[in-house]
Design a protein that fits this description.
Layout: E1 2-6, H1 13-24, E2 27-30, H2 31-40, H3 44-54, H4 61-72, E3 81-84, H5 90-102, E4 109-114, H6 117-125, E5 127-130, E6 136-138, E7 158-159, H7 166-180, H8 182-189, E8 193-197, H9 202-214
Parallel strand pairs: 1-3, 1-4, 2-3, 4-8
Antiparallel strand pairs: 5-6, 5-7
Helix pairs in contact: 1-9, 2-3, 4-5, 6-7
């Protein structure tokens, strides 16, 4: 099964993608995580991407498409994948179509998570992740069961993303509306989109996404 998860920054894509990968046994491919790994490794790609990410803009299509191309042919993608944060432009959506067509593959579903802009800044302001395993948390909505200790791996160090500042978030929202939202229409014309309300409890949203994925896909 091959899925795309769309939605504004802070709508819960990453959290939901991690849950869906467990439920459906397919791998989460987050271009944001791939870029952050490149930045941490100070690779050529990372050095080019860091300032763009901090400015709330999109890195060049060619750079992202190269990262995804290298990733989808890895053995762990054989059962399928959930694309989280890709595609983000029409050019990326078209490149994805071409990439899949060349492999005789299709997309099964595009899930659009909807959250109002006013809620985004609050939601992003509180988020942090485990420095060791990347598990995602939130100061208000999703705290670790034991304060200061990761539920998933027990680590005690956490990080906050440098691009989660109010100023960068506003820019990321503008970028989303200008460049990414139009691809919902692109996939809508193909009949692939299911929209899900992204407010409410994390588990409820997972349930809605699961139903939307199962409806009319090859999965029973
Ligand atoms: P994310 O973790 O998905 O919020 O991505 C963090 C940042 O990485 C974005 O604000 C962009 O600067 C960059 N980025 C991630 N995915 C893409 C993409 N598909 N195209 C362009 N830039 C991206």
């Amino acid at each position: 099964m091959r899925l795309v998860l769309l939605g504004p920054p802070g709508c819960g894509k990453g959290t939901q993608a991690k849950r869906l990968q467990e439920i459906f046994g397919i791998v989460q491919l987050s271009t944001g995580d791939m870029l952050r790994a490149e930045v941490a490794a100070a690779s050529d790609t990372g050095l080019k991407a860091a300032a763009i990410m901090q400015g709330g803009q999109l890195v060049p299509d060619a750079m992202i498409i190269a990262l995804i191309k290298a990733r989808v042919d890895q053995p762990d993608c054989r059962n399928g994948f959930i694309l989280d944060g890709f595609p983000r432009t029409l050019a990326q959506a078209e490149a994805l179509d071409a990439m899949l067509a060349a492999r005789h593959l299709d997309l099964d579903r595009v899930l659009a998570i909807e959250v109002d802009d006013e809620d985004i800044v609050t939601r992003i302001g509180g988020r942090f992740s485990c420095s060791r395993c990347g598990a995602l948390y939130h100061d208000v909505f999703n705290r670790p069961k034991q304060d200061g200790k990761c539920d998933a791996c027990g680590a005690t160090e956490f990080t906050r993303r440098p691009d989660d500042t109010a100023e960068t978030v506003r820019k990321r929202l503008q970028t989303y509306h200008a460049q990414t939202a139009p691809i919902i229409e692109y996939y809508g014309r193909k009949g692939l989109v299911r929209s899900v309300d992204g407010s409410g409890a994390i588990a409820e949203i997972t349930e809605k996404l699961t139903v939307a994925i199962r409806e009319g896909t090859r999965v029973d």
